[in-house]
Amino acid sequence: LNTSFQIETSRKSALGDLKTTFEVEYNKTTTDGNNGLTTLSEASFTWAGIKAGYTDSQMNFWDGDFQFTATAPDRTVGLAGYEFKLGENWTLRLAYETGLPTSRVSTNKFATVYPDDPAGSARLYYDANDVSFQLSGLIHEARINGTHPLLAFLGRQEEFKEIGWAATAGLTLPVKWGKDGNQFSLQATYAVNASPYLGTVVDASSLASTIPVPVTTQGWSVVGSYHHAWSEQWESNVMASYLALDLS
């Protein structure tokens, strides 16, 4: 069972429209009634170039209509940023994002915000005539608390820090074949010590609870999909993704 509830508002002001979005999702995986999970999908506002709240990371771009998870960046974070208009169709947003957990955490959380590892991000975005293009990047400092059980047993608790960064490019193009709404979408990402932005949970932060020494991660991922509308009643989607991750 999967149920979502969303409220969107828009109110005009002297400095532009004040828009808000609030969405929660409920998931229940069994019939015993005891393991339903309610999570916050978004709680944000946009006004006069400012965007803040709990929303998508600026590294997110690809969004396919599939009933399963693809190998693609898909993180929801606490974000505060400002968007600059660079022309009729171009924008640049600079933002602060909450980052990655510094140790293993429970997945049963209402909102997955980890303020201990903030990231600075930038997004250059183009949108016109059903064509969208994005270049994004971020940099952060992962801080590992060094409380691995083996280190504690040996009396060698160790903290360490790793600078991490990631860059991504995305493109969505309409396809003039068949009904309106056909489109091709592609996203490619490269990351160093920031591999959750590739679409995997493996990173220095999660490895710190299983490996008692500092580690370095680097890798890349790519995902592409095609959506085709055959008629008003029938649509189809096809997707392919690939991820390569090196741990040293």
What report would you give on this structure?
- The protein has 248 residues and is mainly beta.
- The chain has two helices and twelve strands.
Features:
248 residues, 2 helices, globular
Spatially, the strands of the biggest sheet line up as 1-2-3-4-5-6-7-8-9-10-11-12
Largest sheet: 12 strands, antiparallel
Strand composition percent: over 45%
* Span of the ends, CA to CA: 41 Å
The run of helices and strands is: EEEEEEEEHEEHEE
Low-confidence regions: none
Mean pLDDT over all positions: 82
Shape: globular
The total strand number stands at 12
Quick overview of this protein structure:
By secondary structure, this protein is mainly beta. It contains two helices and twelve strands; from the N terminus they run ββββββββαββαββ.
In terms of topology, how is this protein built?
Layout: E1 2-11, E2 18-27, E3 37-47, E4 50-56, E5 76-85, E6 90-97, E7 119-128, E8 131-144, H1 149-154, E9 160-174, E10 183-192, H2 204-207, E11 217-229, E12 235-247
